[in-house]
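Quick entry, no commentary yet.
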Amino acid sequence: MFAAIGRKLFGTKNERYLKTLGPVVDQVNSLEDKVRAFSDADFPSRIAELRQQVEAGKSTDELLPEVFALVREAGRRQMNMRHYDVQLIGGAVLHGGRIAEMRTGEGKTLVATLPVVLNALSGKGVHVVTVNDYLARRDAEWMSQIYTFLGLSVGTVLHGMTDEERKAAYGADITYGTNNEFGFDYLRDNMKFYLDQLVQRDLHFAIVDEVDSILIDEARTPLIISGQAQDSVAMYAQMDSIIPRLNPENDFILDEKARTVSLTDEGVIKCENILGISNLYDPANIAYQHHVLQALKAHRLFKRDVDYVVKEGQVMIVDEFTGRLMEGRRYSDGLHQALEAKEHVKVEAENQTLASITFQNYFRMYDKLSGMTGTADTEAVEFKQIYDLDVTVIPTNRPMVRNDQADLIFKNQDAKYRAIAEDVTEKHKEGRPVLVGTTSIEKSERLSSLLKKRRVPHSVLNAKHHEQEAEIVAEAGQTGKVTIATNMAGRGTDIVLGEGVRELGGLHILGTERHESRRIDNQLRGRSGRQGDPGSSRFFLALDDDLMRLFGSEKLQGIMNRLGLEDDEAIENSMVTKAIENAQRRVEGRNFDIRKQLLEFDDTMNQQRTVIYSQRRDIMRAQPAELEEMVNTFVDEQLDGLFESLEHSKSRHGDEEEATEFVAGRLDEIFNLGRVDELREKLPTRDAARDAVNERFGVLRQGAPDMYTEIFRFFLLDSLDRNWKEHLLNMDYLREGIGLRGYGQKDPKQEYKREGFELFQDMLERIKETTLRSLCRLRLQQEVHEDDFQHQEEKNVTYAGGGESEAAKKKPMKREEPKVGRNDPCPCGSGKKYKKCCGR
């Protein structure tokens, strides 16, 4: 009650913030006459002057009014598009590192040019993030008319570009691209070996278009770069053959709400009998247990043409929010292979993670982040908690007059679809354009077949080609046009009403069911009623819709039965609509919890990732002396640890034989100092061991003086990458089973942090050890090029040892050393036996 009174007296938080931006808009407007007097040549020169002021330390906040005025005038001259006052407000909100909620058709693409130009003055680069390649290319080309007029460079990062093209795009003042391309480039850069191979600069400022889609809807799917694992694919077909023999009533429990499946005791016994094993939960049989459950999920929870499609012999994921095919994406943990086995297509080998990051943690690395969308306010809490982003709702340029009608609820799907087909047919006869939003490809095709029977011409949009998608959606406002599309298809493209349509009532939106998220429903409604246009919207629901079925349609079913309603009769009730929205809130809360839990687990990985990637950059940037110091520190740490353990064992037990054998073994294992039996007879002192390692490094320096420290750099990075890849696999295994700790009254998240830290510490030690193992076993071989063969000149040095690498796969022709017996005199001329000298 007090909060309501406070809002009436002082306005909402949103209204109070918008009021503070009023003077900013007034300042911009006061400069309009001044910049209109500029010649075209004055604009780039003035931007260059302002860039120098920023480099000298002037705040971009101080320059905002003038820059916004320059951008507005550039838009008017180049594109005949003058920013409205509400668009200036949107630009100021974005510059402030907030999310601007702007209704569809309010010109978000143009709004972004204001803060983009202002923040580009820093020279550190601005990223504009879109949901697909088509929009990235379109927006960059469209808005570059403003940017180039002002003397700023524009780049676009698209799928399939080379590293050189990417580097040039990131080097521009403003870079457009998709969230996937930006994220994957970050991961790929952290797998490179040399600084000049990096394509991205430091992450400075990003504006995320359709921010709710990218930072919330896609946040449950991390970006992963993977390589093929060595697992056999035969098990997937074997597990798939078991599923038809399991009885849903007795053998397993299905929870559609939580999208989980588990075996009953009867189901476990049946699986054990089929597989011929005594205990499915024996650690030795953990693979069977895992793959049986994944096969069950594939058959019982994942539906063809809803969750995935089969296209050209491949299982392709369908994005549940956009209806788009997610090319190149695969489900993890063997689920994708289980689906391939189910659909009897080729089962691809499972992949091993080489690098990964969540969108949450990627975008939180920017110095400043902002976003824009038509629907964000319903997720304001999540934006604040996860990204520390406030949501500001920007007023529309013209009043909203769309008529949002109450939902119609039918008994079943058949009755609902008949009513939808009838409504669409009537609207088509009237000449009104209709956009029908569906939640899956399957439902789009079902409705399409009904309209074909009624001979209603229509377009079906399954969002397989973005260019075609945008074209179809752009024409959806023409007289009599009927378009069937997944709820989010064509997002980012305005639907402009054709001639005479306003008089007919504008575009009609018809939703075939409610989505789990209110925001997705609002996005569909938002396609109508742009810039004060007339329009209407209505949702048709059935009691057996997924949302209704899972979240409380029992009471409604009883009411409809008591009222004696026929199948084709619908009820229209505001209380029912409210109950549905409450169900959506519960689902939204559950999905938020899932994303938050994913982030909490990934935060542990993110801390480790930050350390490793920071170390990689340090190694890549290090000067020769720093690299030597790094390796020498590794040597001292290893030797100190070994000889301290020896002294400790002597003083504690008085028996040094076992300790001596351990130290001897480790000296040979790490530093290649000789056979264990020889070292045991005469174990060197710590200083003598250090001298022996120095001698090895001396030989390396002598053999390759120009490449000495580069050899260090190569093996440091190689060792780091190998061990990090193995660590990621170990963390995946840990994450998979950590939930079981809850049964032992332990917090799985805390256990994951604790054990993950221990694994990380072990990995850091292995990086040091494997680097030294490689360096101390390195053999230099002379390289002879064919064209110089007669002169026998030494040209380069090739590395061998330290495992197979990309460089090792491209070895040039080498001259092999002569074969020498272990007891023969060493060919180096030292007078020692080969086994005691170079053959050690």
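second:
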Amino acid sequence: MLALTTPEAAIIGALLALWLGAAVWALATGLRLRRSAQEAELRCSRLHALIGSAPALIVLVHADGALEGSERLADWLGLDEQPATLGALCGPGRGLWESDLSALEDDIRLAQSTGKSFHRTIRPQQSKRNFTVRGGPAPAGVAESGTAILYLFDATEVRTEIARLSDEADRLAKAFDALSGLIEASPIPMWHRGPDLKLTLVNSAYVKAVEAEDAADVITRGVELVEAAPGRNPIAAAAAARESGLMSSRVLPATVGGERRSLSVVDVPLGNAGVAGYAIDVEELEQARLAFRRFADAQRDLLDRLSAGVAQFAADRSLSFYNQAFMRLFAIKPEWLSEGPEFDRVLERMRETGRLPEVRDFRAWRDERRGWFTAADEGQEENWMLPGGVHLRVVAQPLPDGGLLLIFEDRTEQVALASARDTLLRVRAATFDNLFEAVGVFAADGRLQLWNQKFRDVWDLDEAFLSKHPRVDQLAEAAGRQLANPSRAAVIRELVRVATQDRKQRSGRVALKNGRHFEFAAVPLPDGNALFTMLDISDSRRIEAALRDRNEALEDADRVKTAFVANMSYELRTPLTSIGGFAEMLAGGYAGELAPTADEYVRAILDSVARLSTLIDHVLDLTQSEAGGLPLEKKSVDVRRIVREAAKATDAAASEKSIEFTVEIEKTLGTMNGDARRIRQVLDNLLANAIRFTPPGGQILLRGEGYEETVRIVISDSGPGMTSKEQARAFDRFSRSTDEGERGSSLGLGLPLARQFVEAHGGSLTLASEPGQGTAVTVELPRK
């Protein structure tokens, strides 16, 4: 063994040390490289997994046409094995269509030569899947130059969604076109505001309403349908609707087509799309509402003026209206009623005030009345008898809105009047049945309606026959058997016909077989019926015959006087009294309320009765005066007072004919001894005569003056005057004077009576007249 020197040993040690260090470094480096390789392998595995699970397939196409890529390519294209070349992508019934492959090859060659990217859609055979291919040159470092890289995406779902969205877009476009057409054709103005609240769309109705040229003109100028005014700014209203997110509506005045109209303007928020709006013309509706409000106010005002009590309840059964008559009728304070009490409470308060009928079970009675609100028929009517004899007629009318209208009519007086009327009818029937005259009432159809005992006895008719209400021809046939001349029965039928149909009064006389004579008359009644009366004048006929036998030698004037006095006998007063009495009963309403025309007829009857009674009195006064039996009172008479009263009584008649009536009464007129009533009659007759013959607009003078021994009264008028012949006949008791103001001709009894009354006092009455100059009558009466 060789011994090493120290330097050699040192060198060897150094070499070993270096080798050991190098070994350690190599080991460390190897370990580091191993870890890097493991990490690279892990990353490669991860990247391979990511590429394998990616939605797109990556395929490299080398310059020689070789394919390198994902193993899923065969599955996507429906191939049995992984294609190795570009041409293997198409096979019989499998893979790509030849047209798609050819186009793809052209795109790849172009990308390989020019580096241009491309995009294409391909579809495998026997498959509904669609693939999108994006290609271009492969990045440097990935493959050799001339290599193209392809990215295949499965676009089947995307295409389906695109198709669906396309169809939806077409449908929405058509709907939008239809909606636009509908908006454009709408007769009401419609518009749309953008997010800035400016007009972006208006329809033709809007353009027409604002009288613009077209929609573009409206949008450009920003013409608003409703004029901006304090409290009604259209843009502010649209902004408020957008902020609240709620549709708003308001009624505003606007000028549409040159006319002022009321519009219901509606703003509809559309979120970020802006605000839409439309306007409806409600002018007619507003006018109808105003008219209905005025009608309701007028109706309530009318109901408040009714004498009947009225109460109206709303659908919730609270009191909504009452009139003054209701408040007075039920003695309820207005403060309580103004609170709108419920129906049940009102009935309870009416019960407390004693204004409800006495009932055993008030609660059940109240519940039954509550059913008025839902009554099926149109209305209910009841009669309430209240304590104290008050009689109420109650009408309950359900209202269309679910409310109730109650009307309370106080019929206490009507019931009392009906009872009094029934009593009067019974009295009238008893009076009618016991009259001395035979009386029958015929209806308008000629049937006998009423008759008294005397009527039945005169014609000797059975009650059974009369109870059948025979017609006048049947009655005339039965009555003809009692007449001395049966042919006169036709007169009865004719008189009834004239009275019922022609409304004329007729009279006559008839003789019976038993020797009795009757004076009959048919008088039309206001109700369309006819009154047939028969007065027994047998005694008068005998007296008349006796007087005629004894006085047939008298002058014609005496015979006329005798006949006239006979006609003014008791028998003439009796029917006049009956006519007046029945007419007064009709005017008093005992036979029911008369129509205005009927009331006028009754008044005419009463006036005629009064005139006839006055005429009879005048005739009797004349006959008494002629016989020297006119009674006169002899006492002190204030002539001034009598003249003043006569003048006052004549004022109305003079005013009615517009006659200037002048009265001059001297203080010297004083008093005299005489009959005040007869002196007043003298003045009344003379003044009436002057009024009658003085034309409208004329003058009448009444002057009274007194002297020591006499009293003078002068009555002058501006009438037509009288000829000497007329003056000679003026004081003839039975001469006739015609007056256009009166009904036909009348007996001139005024002047004859006046002269006889004056001469009975020892005075004188003179007449002075000239045609066309008027007439003056002078009365002179002695004071003693």
